[in-house]
Amino acid sequence: MRRWRALLLAASVALAPGGAPAVAQQAMINAGAWSAYKAKFLDATGRIIDNGNGNISHSEGQGYGMLLAYLAASPADFEQIWYFTRTELLLRNDGLAVWKWDPNVKPHVTDTNNASDGDMLIAYALALAGTAWKRNDYILAASRMAQALLAETVVHASGHTLLLPGSEGFAATDREDGPVVNPSYWIYEAIPVMGALAPSDAWQKLSDDGLTLLKTMQFGPRKLPAEWVSLNGQPQPAEGFDAEFAYNAIRIPLYLVRGGVTDKALLTHLREGMSQDGVPATIDLTTGRPKTVLPDPGYRIVNDVVACVVDGTKLPGSALQFAPALYYPSTLQLLGLAYIGEKHPECL
Questions:
Q1: Is 117 a catalytic residue?
Q2: Cβ of 310: how many Cβ atoms within 10 Å?
Q3: Which of 21, 88, 289, 312 has its CA at 20 to 30 Å from residue 78's CA atom?
């Protein structure tokens, strides 16, 4: 017990701005936008509904929901989402969450593997909320999840420190072209917080190697990363997956800037490569042709945020109008708006 008290104290100080005790949290998402998001995607049980994916719930969505509730300065909503998460998803013996929950079947958990990005989002949100709202139980839960992530999914392989997408199915021992990674699972803003919660040099190496690898994942005419990449030898699109820059990959530039990465060459390259006439799209890496153009403001805001960071370009009016339709782009839009409001208000 003494070890956990010391860890909680150390994490609280490390997570607070400038290493100082936490101060009252300011909302980064306005109340109207958060109310609209809740009305569309949050049910009474605390479940975030992915309405673009058969109305399932998953650890990623719960983590995003908790992070957005924190950014909206809404402890009651945060607790509601956390309740569902811990009672319905934190069922594994290793401290990580099962990733998929389907309301249309029983039992509702249809895949007991974890999704490492969902776990990291949950732990990150718990750590931020626990520090801001003086909830040691949140920080303790975050610490346990960060330790589990470190033990089960952070590995050294192929000369790099990697984040396996799940504890099962992606390592070199699991498949012939393993290890396989998903570059959109590196949540750069959260990785230093994981280091405060579960101290290890591996976290900094994970962040550094993620950036290094991202710059080598240049496939096809547009030289973009694939969503699933084999690191068995030279990086290449993984077997059994479409060779595409797909929906998950759209968030990579947003994760970079939110994590403080301002490499203009890298951000510009990604923005130009993932766009068709300035609009984000999923890309067939073999041909370089767009598969699906994504005009939703939630997708477009990724390019808008990059333009702000790289060129100082103001966000268009459409990016500031939040009318949630689909879970995933709506989530990206709120994360983008929260970032610009905090770090680049001159672009509003």
A1: yes
A2: 17
A3: 21
